[in-house]
Every structure is written in structure tokens, then in C-alpha cells.
Automatic annotation (TrEMBL):
Cellular component terms (Gene Ontology): membrane
Gene3D superfamilies: P-loop containing nucleotide triphosphate hydrolases
UniProt name for this protein: Phosphonate transport system ATP-binding protein
One Pfam family, short name: ABC_tran
Protein's UniProt keywords contain Methyltransferase: no
A GO term for molecular function: ATP hydrolysis activity
Residues annotated as domain ABC transporter: 2-245
InterPro entries reported for this sequence: AAA+_ATPase, ABC_transporter-like_ATP-bd, ABC_transporter-like_CS, ABC_transpr_PhnC, MetN_ABC_transporter-like, P-loop_NTPase
Keyword Cell inner membrane annotated: yes
Keywords, comma-separated and alphabetical: ATP-binding, Cell inner membrane, Cell membrane, Membrane, Nucleotide-binding, Translocase, Transport
Length: 276
């Protein structure tokens, strides 16, 4: 389905990603982990064609997407929607318009200029927001929402593109543990219910283990681990993070698993509320 063949990115003399290869046969949820500077963002940006690779190839469903240009490159970018740590919403614009921006690639300049959206798109945007538990936020300005809600708006905007792949670059790095869990669960649900592939850069081991079917570990631009969460032992993690014997998993943890009872109860309440 998706194959990366010896994908490489060089910035001057610095090799940010070095001969990264992996193959995905069916839509799964993949977590990419590794310390800061390991090359995680560079890899996602090449996949999305936000950044050109120096060498190697990306093949999706038999098509080489490595050198697509112009409208075919833009078409690919709508097939693999990207979400970011900082949400990248238009803060002063209302939520539903932010979501409708997800259809931008498919619309004429004129309708974009006048902010004209087909009725059907507006309905679909509200439906997607509803699915993510934030339909009632639709008329509000994006900046009025909490971080977790804003990230769900960004996910809704991505879903508007009906993407085959959702790429997420540290989607929960700016969120508190409770919102982090809600956002990760939303991504997991989208993967399971819609059969979309999700590839997320994550900086915590426990999140990768908990939500992903497969974990890819990067170190100094290279893929040094590719396996299931079960195979990701503490020793393997130590190797990925390049830490010495004092390495502790807690240091890379969002501690979602160690939520106390009261927090867990609040979380359940928040989730129930999100479903109303
Ligand atoms: N535009 C750029 N120009 C020069 N060097 C870059 C550029 N982007 C990234 N790099 C370098 O490439 C390497 C990989 O960076 P990248 O941002 O992919 O790492 P990362 O794993 O996403 O790190 P983090 O966890 O901090 O987000 C780093 O050494 C970085 O300094
Ligand atoms: Mg990064």
C-alpha cells in the first residue's frame, strides 16, 4: 500500500533522514518515536511532499509520488492530510470555516475569495465536528477553544479532505494528559472506523505503545526499530533514545497510565460530555 524505499534527506552536510525504508501492507496506526532531532518531522514532511527528498522513493498504491509536481502534488497532499502540534488553525475564524478550509484544494479561487461553501460541505463539516464531539463549538472562534478542542478541529479539517492517510506531527505535545488521551483516541477511532492509515510522531513511549499497532524508532536519521508495541522492550527503547544505563521510561512518559482515580473519573466525564 505504502512503501518508502531508502528515503534520504540532506540539509547541506547534515543528513536528517538516512535511507529510511518501510512497507505498510494495510491501513494501520503507526507511531514514530525518537529523541529530538532524530528526523521524525523531516520524514513526515517528505511523505506529505511538503519537503522534497534528496534520494530514495515513496510509492503509494503502485504510484511513485516522490516527484509529483503541481496539481498532482496537491492532490497527493489532500490524500495524506497533516496535523501539527500547534494545530495551525486560523485563530480569529470560526470553527466551521476552519474545518471547511480542508476542502480548499478542491475549490475555485473565486469561491475561496468570497468564502462561499457548498451547503453539502457545510453539513459534512458539522457532521465531522459532531463525530469528534465538538459540534456545539462550530460557531465559535477557533481561539476560544481549549487546546484539545482545537486539535480536534484540526483533525476535522483533515477529515474534510477524506484522506487515505493522516500524518500527525506530535499531535499531543502541547496538551495536558487528559486532552492528549481524547485526541489520541479520536485518531484511533478514525483509523478503526474509517480504515484510514495514521502515522503519528510521538515523543512518549507509553502513547505509542497504547494506541499504535506498529512502532518505528528513529535515531540519528535512521530507522533503528520497526515492530509491534510488545517488541518495544525497555532495552530497545534505550537503544532508540540513545540513553545510557540511567535511562528511565518515566522521563518520556505523559503518565497517562498513572492517572489517579479522581483524574480518571474526570476523564470519563469529559468523554461522556464530548459524546452528547
Ligand atoms: N530546514 C532545515 N534546515 C537544516 N536542518 C534541518 C532543517 N530541518 C531539520 N533539520 C535538521 O534535521 C535533523 C532532524 O530534524 P527533525 O526536525 O526532523 O527532527 P525531529 O525528530 O522531528 O525532532 P523533534 O522531536 O525535536 O521535533 C535535525 O538535526 C535538524 O536540526
Ligand atoms: Mg519534530
Amino acid at each position: 500500500m505504502l512503501e518508502l524505499i531508502s528515503l534520504t534527506k540532506q540539509f547541506g552536510t547534515k543528513t536528517a533522514v538516512e535511507r529510511a525504508s518501510f512497507k505498510v501492507d494495510h491501513p494501520m496506526m503507526i507511531g514514530i518515536i525518537g529523541r529530538s532531532g532524530a528526523g521524525k518531522s523531516t520524514l513526515l514532511r517528505m511523505l506529505n511532499r511538503l519537503s522534497d527528498s534528496t534520494d530514495g522513493r515513496i510509492v503509494f498504491q503502485g504510484n511513485d509520488i516522490t516527484r509529483l509536481k503541481g496539481s498532482s502534488r496537491r492532490h497527493w497532499q489532500s490524500r495524506c492530510a497533516m496535523i501539527f502540534q500547534q494545530f495551525n488553525l486560523v485563530p480569529r475564524m470560526d470553527v466551521v470555516s476552519n474545518v471547511l478550509h480542508g476542502t480548499l484544494n478542491q475549490r475555485s479561487t473565486l469561491s475561496t475569495m468570497f468564502n462561499l461553501y457548498p451547503q453539502a460541505d457545510i453539513h459534512r463539516a458539522i457532521e465531522i465536528l459532531d463525530r469528534l464531539g465538538i459540534a456545539e463549538q462550530a460557531p465559535k472562534r477557533a481561539e476560544a477553544l481549549s487546546g484539545g478542542q482545537q486539535q480536534r478541529v484540526a483533525i476535522a479539517r483533515a477529515l474534510m479532505q477524506d484522506p487515505a492517510i493522516i500524518l500527525a506531527d506530535e499531535p499531543i505535545a502541547s496538551l495536558d494528559p487528559m486532552n492528549a488521551q481524547i485526541v489520541m483516541q479520536s485518531l484511533r477511532d478514525i483509523h478503526e472506523q474509517d480504515n484510514r492509515m495514521v502515522i503519528a510522531n510521538l515523543h512518549t513511549l507509553d502513547t505509542a505503545r497504547r494506541y499504535c499497532d506498529r512502532v518505528i524508532g528513529m535515531r540519528d536519521g535512521r530507522i533503528v526499530f520497526d515492530g509491534t508495541p510488545e517488541q518495544l522492550s525497555t532495552n530497545v527503547a534505550r537503544d532508540i533514545y540513545g540513553a545510557d544505563a540511567s535511562f528511565s521510561e518515566a522521563a518520556t512518559s505523559t503518565q497517562i497510565d498513572t492517572l489517579d482515580r479522581e483524574t480518571a473519573r474526570l476523564l470519563e466525564e469529559a468523554k461522556a460530555e464530548a459524546l452528547v
